Amino acid sequence: MDYHVEVKLSLIEKTRRDTLTCIFCGATPTTREHVFSEWTHALMGPREKLRAQQFLSFQHPDRTDFTDDLRFPGPLRDWQIKCVCETKCNNGWMREIENAAIPVMTPLIGGQQTILSPADQKFIATWAVLKVTVAHHNFIPPVKRKQFASKREPQAEWSVWIGYCPGHEPSPAWDSRPFTLRKPKEPGGLGSPNCHASTLILNQLLIHVVNIEKDFSLGWTFRGRGGSALTGNIIPIWPPTNISVHWPPRPLTEQDVDVVSSSLYWAIQRVIARRRR
After folding, report:
1. Distances 164 to 137, 176, 177, 189, 261 between C-alpha atoms, Å
2. Domains of the chain: which residue ranges?
3. How does pLDDT run across 154-206, given as a tens digit for each residue?
4. Residues 180, 183, 184, 190, CA torsion sign
5. Which residues contact 49 (CB under 8 A, 6 or more apart)?
6. What is d(CA 224, CA 265) in angstroms, rounded to the nearest whole number?
7. N- to C-terminal Cα distance for the chain?
């Protein structure tokens, strides 16, 4: 088999998201969950008529595997994954997270002025981690998914930031970068990603979510490949800071959005380069 075809098939297999049993409680049957919740659709721009394009890339210590000719069945806002049970999870505790997030996130998506309390920030972070967990459950161990369902809040390996990005096109948008990392003393590579960074954009709200084991000390900041810094503000909301946030902050430019989505990748590349010396 041609190497590039083999890589493409491998990536598709790793990112298969529909499951027969619930990713949180193991119940059957499963039902479909919108990655971009239905209540957000009315707050977005005009509906796209074309099918959204999907780019897959996995970062390994010694290579990058990617394919860029896949398409969703329709617009990105209609993206659904069949992986959660209907009664206990989808219409139970997951619905509670959605309901708590709606009044907090609605003014942010529209770019309105508001003040986010620490409790508001927790609602946003929990909602964002739920969405990323649904989208990337293949990369999150079952015990971690069960912990999230039990605690109803992000655990220690999650970090969440938010930013104000008026004028970004398209909306919604989803940029996710799975990585394969290993600790310095671990031999060989890992077959599947064990961390990832995801950037979600809903109209004027950017949410950046990182899942990485705390054993990996990267010391990274939001800087691009050449060290470029942000001109706008990216605000940490998880782990909790216990500080209220005045919204909107200084806006992120299109270049800032690229820096945010790629910062962890370039930090990892710098760590890998140091370890190879």
Report:
1. 27, 19, 21, 37, 14
2. 3-276
3. 998 899 999 999 977 777 888 888 877 765 455 444 456 778 889 999 999 99
4. negative
5. 75
6. 9
7. 35
